[in-house]
From TrEMBL:
Its cofactor is FAD. InterPro entries: FAD/NAD-bd_sf, GMC_OxRdtase, GMC_OxRdtase_N, GMC_OxRtase_C. The keyword Flavoprotein applies. Keywords: FAD, Flavoprotein. This is GMC family oxidoreductase N-terminal domain-containing protein. Residues 108-131, 285-299 form the Glucose-methanol-choline oxidoreductase N-terminal domain. Residues 12-24 have a biased composition (Basic and acidic residues). Belongs to the GMC oxidoreductase family. Residues 1-24 are annotated as: Disordered.
């Protein structure tokens, strides 16, 4: 049997799948059993797990293009997608806590969503994150032990065997950064020299304690990006019960009373409706999901009234609780140019800003080329250098997504509100201090001539922190699960007060996980599909 998740056109599979999908698109049904909105990290998982059952018809709707592009498939080219039609290109509101700066907030658009434009780092989240989700929802299925089982089922781990933590038979090819740059090894040595423990891989024991350093795990296979779409959906794209619609925007969910019965879509300039006989799953990401809910009449009643949108269900938490990791990059100049390898981010470090913490609150990803903010770039960017993307893993600041109007084609208002909580500024000071200590360690001396940003000997003040702050692109939390008044979905991901509508994407996280967010989004997709299969007896 050919492995259709492997890169390349295995055994003519790709041509077959393309022809099949063209035929499906030309002959759209009026009703599908399931409609999955958004083919990103979570949506790809949900669609695959439902369509595995030949008795279910599944329609997967994606606003962006397919993923057949070198900028997607070549791991080194990820930055070239930013600002293109593969990026929603959100712009946050000017933020007084960042000296009025308005951050750009990229999010993936196209098959794979974020997993087709991201840096390919695979990070599970900390034990304390998952146990927190179980406590918030009162559902042990979200706890660390349960989620560990899901991760073992997801992964096809290529590193040193570690049966307690790593699976080897799942759909997602995860490998340790292959042939990493010596600058990544220098980070491991430097951190170890400062007493930070080093681990063989970052997705096991390291995610249970106070932190550590390791080479990154990556979704790269045979030198090509292995997005979650490629891992999950592409191998079944020739199945008769799966229809994948690209370049199609879901404008709103349609209801019969409080029962979700279909979606209104825009495709090639025309608007139409498609029905779901069983359920609709929204997986449109943490900015577009609250937008879609509000456009559909699910949200804060005052907010909806302001825009003249009839209220289907008053849920004041929709769009609230926006969270994101924020990073403060420091940059060093190479003595001799060192070309980035893999995705250019091959080592990862978690540590804590205060000794009394029992879990990490800092997240560092090394980037093997300079990535300053637009402000810190003014300090002078070396032609050849590297940046430590040093950020807050557990920020306290919360933002909000709102609608500008009832017009689905308008961008939403993204109030990211980073550094609004003074505790974040305090952690940021410790974060930048540790980052500079690591960068000036002896381990880097063979490779680095000088710190350029903020600059050797420069005293770092809060103004530098506000100028350096940028998003880690880990937006989440805007339709959180739980049972309090501000929660939007229950532990089974069903929208409170509504039948036939579930949310499965980063929006449902009550708080951002400690680490990069695509792996937790894959878990959310697996959980959503488990729940649906169980409830529907599939
Ligand atoms: C530049 C960048 C780098 C990143 N690096 C990493 C990394 O290295 N490691 C990591 O773990 N995470 C990384 N992330 C974050 C990670 O990719 C996201 O957290 C993750 O993809 C979120 O998954 P999701 O399912 O919530 O949403 P997404 O993956 O964003 O998927 C949402 C999908 O829905 C589609 N959609 C939205 N609205 C509509 C609509 N109305 N109709 C139809 N379709 C719609 C979108 O086009 C998109 O395809 C990065 C993100 C970016 C942008």
């Amino acid at each position: 049997m050919t492995d259709a998740s492997a890169p390349g056109d295995t055994g003519g599979f790709e041509r077959r799948a393309r022809e099949h999908q063209a035929e499906r698109k030309a002959n759209l049904e009026t009703t599908y059993d399931f409609i999955v909105c958004g083919a990103g990290s979570s949506g790809s998982v949900v669609a695959r797990r439902l369509a595995e059952n030949p008795a279910c018809s599944v329609l997967l709707i994606e606003a962006g293009p397919d993923d057949e592009a070198e900028s997607v498939l070549d791991p080194a080219l990820w930055p070239t997608n930013l600002g293109t039609d593969r990026d929603w290109g959100f712009q946050a509101e000017p933020n007084p806590h960042l000296d009025g700066r308005a951050l750009s907030m990229s999010m993936g658009k196209g098959l794979g969503g974020g997993s087709s434009v991201n840096v390919m780092v695979w990070a599970r989240g900390h034990r304390s994150d998952w146990d927190h989700f179980a406590a918030e929802t009162g559902d042990p299925n979200w706890n660390y032990a349960s989620v560990l089982d899901i991760y073992r089922r997801i992964e096809n781990w290529q590193g040193q065997p570690d049966a307690k933590y790593r699976g080897t038979t799942g759909p997602v090819w995860v490998q340790p950064a292959k042939g990493p740059s010596p600058i990544a090894g220098a980070l491991l040595d430097a951190a170890e020299g400062l007493g930070i423990p080093r681990f063989d891989h970052p997705n096991g024991e390291m995610m249970e304690g106070v932190g550590g350093v390791a080479y990154a795990d990556m979704l790269v296979r045979e030198g090509r990006r292995q997005s979650l779409y490629r891992a999950y959906v592409r191998p079944i794209a020739d199945h008769p019960n799966l229809t994948i619609l690209t370049e199609t925007v879901v404008r709103r969910v349609l209801f019969d009373g409080r029962h979700a019965i279909g979606v209104e879509i825009e495709r090639a300039g025309s608007i139409s409706a498609i029905k779901a006989s069983t359920e609709i799953v929204i997986s449109t990401g943490a900015i577009n999901t609250p937008k879609l809910l509000m456009l559909s009449g699910v949200g804060d009643r005052d907010e909806l009234a302001r825009l003249g949108i009839p209220v289907i269900q008053h849920l004041p938490g929709v769009g609230r609780n926006l969270q994101d990791h924020v990073s403060f990059g420091c940059t060093w100049e190479y003595r001799e140019p060192l070309a980035p390898r893999n995705s250019g981010s091959e080592a990862t470090l978690y540590w804590k800003s205060r000794p009394d913490l029992t879990a990490p609150d800092l997240l560092f990803c090394q980037v093997e080329f300079p990535v300053p903010s637009e402000r810190t770039a003014l300090l002078g960017v070396p032609d050849h250098g590297w940046t430590m993307f040093a950020g807050l893993a557990q920020p306290h600041s919360r933002g909000r997504i709102r609608l500008k109007s009832a017009d689905p084609s308008e961008m939403p208002v993204v109030d990211a509100n980073m550094l609004s909580d003074p505790r974040d500024l305090e952690a940021a000071r410790a974060c930048v201090k540790l980052c500079r200590e690591i960068g000036s360690s002896d381990a880097f001396k063979p490779f680095v001539s000088a710190e350029r940003i903020p600059g050797t000997g420069r005293q770092v003040d809060d103004a530098f922190i506000r100028d350096a702050a940028v998003t880690y692109w880990h937006q989440c939390g805007t339709a959180k699960m739980g049972s309090d008044d501000m929660s939007v979905v229950d532990p089974k991901l069903a929208v409170h007060g509504i039948a036939g509508l579930r949310i499965a994407d980063g929006s449902v996280l009550p708080r951002v996980t400690t680490g990069n967010t695509q792996a937790p989004c894959a878990v959310i997709g697996e959980r959503a599909a488990d729940i649906l299969r169980h409830l529907q007896g599939l």
